[in-house]
Inverse folding.
C-alpha cells in the first residue's frame, strides 16, 4: 500500500492532491513531509467569502503540522495561491480545507490536541505532542468557539447558579450557570463577578428561553436571589442542599475552632486533627474514624452537638411531603437557636429566613439532585485551581467551557481518539 492511499483514506481533500512524500530521518525527530498541490484546472476559493476566483500569483511554500504518524512528525507543505475575488473585489489568499486562519497546525491536529486537553493538563498535552502551550491553547479555543456556535440550548429546564473563586483575590469571583437536567448536565455560561449585573447579563443572553425554565437552584447570595426573582418569575427558585449544608458545615467548623482554642488553653487537645471526622458523612468514615467519632460523641462537647445538628438537618431531604418537611425545618431551626451555640444559631436564623426557598425543593419533583450541584462545584474548583496559573479570564473561561460545556464537535472524516 502506498502512503498516498493511507493519506487519502484518513483525509481526502477535494481539489487537492497528495503529490510526494519525503522522510527526513536525520532531523532531531523523524519528519515526514507531505507535499500537496492543487488539482489541475481547479480554482482557488476566497478565504473571505468562499467564492472561486482566478489565480493572481502563488506564495512561497508554507508548512502545517498535522497529526503525528507512529511518532513521526508529519508536515503538510503547500504553496498557497492568491486569487482575484470578484465578490470581495480584492486579491486574497485562497482557503485551504485542512487548516483555518493563520494557525500553523491543521484542523485535524487542533481537534486531536483539544480532545487530549480534556483528559490531561494543557501543559502535559504540549509536552506529549511536542508543541507549545500556546498551540494547545489555540486548539482548545478553536474547539470551544466551534462548540459554542453549534450547541443546542432549547432543552434546558433546570439551571443552577453558582459562584466560584478563580483568582486569589477578593475580586476573583466567577458567576457560573449550569444546566442541571438529568442526562444533559453541562456548563452553560460564566462571567467574572457576582453582582446583580453579572447574573442579569446571563438572563439577557438566555433571552426567551428563560420562560421555559422550571427551576433555578442557587445559594443564599442575595444578589442572585434578587435577579432570579425578577428575571425568572415562573421558575421555582430552590436553595439547594449542597449550599445549605455547606453553610451549616462552616458553622460547625466555627464552633470547633472556638472550642479547640478553649480546650488548648485548658491543656486538653481532644479536638486536634478531628476536623475531617466532623465534616464527612458518617457512612464515608473508616472503621478507625468511626471509633474516634463515637468517643468524641460520648464527651458532650459543643462541637459534637453542632455536628449532630448538622447531620440531623440532612433528614430534611428524605421527606416526601412538604408539610412534614416544613414541620421538621421549623423544629430544626428552633433547636439550633436554643443550642446556645452562636454560629449554629446564626446559621439557623439565615435558614429560617430563606425556608420558603429551601422548601421549594419539594415542588421540583426530584428534578434537582443535590449531587449534581456538588459534582459541578467540585469539578469547577479543580479546573479553576489549575487555572490559577492561567491568569487571564479568557483562558480560564475557555478551560471551563472545554472541560464542562459538553460542547459538540464536528464529524471529522477520521476520529483520532
Ligand atoms: Zn471573496
Amino acid at each position: 500500500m502506498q502512503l498516498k492511499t493511507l493519506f487519502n483514506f484518513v483525509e481526502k481533500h477535494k481539489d487537492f492532491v497528495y503529490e510526494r512524500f519525503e522522510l527526513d530521518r536525520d532531523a532531531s525527530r523523524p519528519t515526514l513531509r507531505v507535499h500537496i498541490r492543487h488539482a489541475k484546472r481547479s480554482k482557488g476559493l476566497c478565504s473571505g467569502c468562499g467564492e472561486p476566483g482566478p489565480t493572481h500569483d502563488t506564495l512561497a511554500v508554507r508548512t502545517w503540522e498535522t497529526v503525528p504518524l507512529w511518532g513521526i512528525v508529519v508536515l503538510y507543505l503547500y504553496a498557497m495561491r492568491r486569487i482575484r475575488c470578484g465578490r470581495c473585489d480584492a486579491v486574497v489568499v485562497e482557503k485551504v480545507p485542512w487548516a483555518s486562519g493563520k494557525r500553523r497546525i491543521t484542523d485535524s491536529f487542533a481537534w486531536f490536541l483539544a480532545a487530549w486537553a480534556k483528559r490531561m493538563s494543557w501543559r502535559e498535552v504540549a509536552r506529549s505532542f511536542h508543541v507549545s502551550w500556546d498551540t494547545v491553547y489555540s486548539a482548545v479555543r478553536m474547539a470551544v468557539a466551534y462548540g459554542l456556535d453549534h450547541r443546542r440550548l432549547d432543552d434546558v429546564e433546570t439551571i443552577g447558579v453558582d459562584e466560584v473563586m478563580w483568582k486569589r483575590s477578593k475580586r476573583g469571583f466567577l458567576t457560573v450557570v449550569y444546566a442541571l437536567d438529568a442526562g444533559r448536565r453541562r456548563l452553560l455560561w460564566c462571567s467574572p463577578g457576582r453582582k446583580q449585573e453579572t447574573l442579569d447579563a446571563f438572563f439577557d443572553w438566555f433571552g426567551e428561553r428563560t420562560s421555559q425554565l422550571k427551576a433555578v437552584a442557587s445559594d443564599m447570595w442575595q444578589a442572585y436571589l434578587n435577579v432570579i426573582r425578577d428575571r425568572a418569575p415562573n421558575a421555582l427558585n430552590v436553595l439547594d442542599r449542597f449550599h445549605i449544608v455547606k453553610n451549616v458545615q462552616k458553622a460547625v467548623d466555627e464552633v470547633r475552632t472556638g472550642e479547640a482554642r478553649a480546650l488548648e488553653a485548658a491543656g486538653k487537645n481532644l479536638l486536634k486533627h478531628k476536623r475531617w471526622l466532623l465534616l464527612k458523612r458518617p457512612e464515608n468514615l473508616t472503621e478507625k474514624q468511626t471509633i474516634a467519632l463515637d468517643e468524641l460523641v460520648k464527651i458532650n462537647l459543643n462541637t459534637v452537638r453542632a455536628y449532630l445538628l448538622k447531620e440531623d438537618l440532612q433528614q430534611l431531604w428524605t421527606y416526601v411531603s412538604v408539610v412534614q418537611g416544613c414541620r421538621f425545618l421549623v423544629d430544626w431551626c428552633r433547636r439550633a437557636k436554643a443550642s446556645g451555640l452562636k454560629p449554629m444559631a446564626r446559621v439557623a436564623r439565615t435558614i429560617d429566613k430563606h425556608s420558603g426557598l429551601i422548601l421549594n425543593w419539594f415542588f421540583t419533583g426530584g428534578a434537582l439532585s443535590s449531587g449534581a450541584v456538588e459534582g459541578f462545584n467540585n469539578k469547577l474548583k479543580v479546573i479553576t485551581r489549575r487555572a490559577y496559573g492561567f491568569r487571564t479570564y479568557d483562558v480560564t473561561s475557555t478551560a471551563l467551557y472545554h472541560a464542562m460545556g459538553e460542547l459538540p464537535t464536528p464529524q471529522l472524516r477520521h476520529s483520532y481518539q
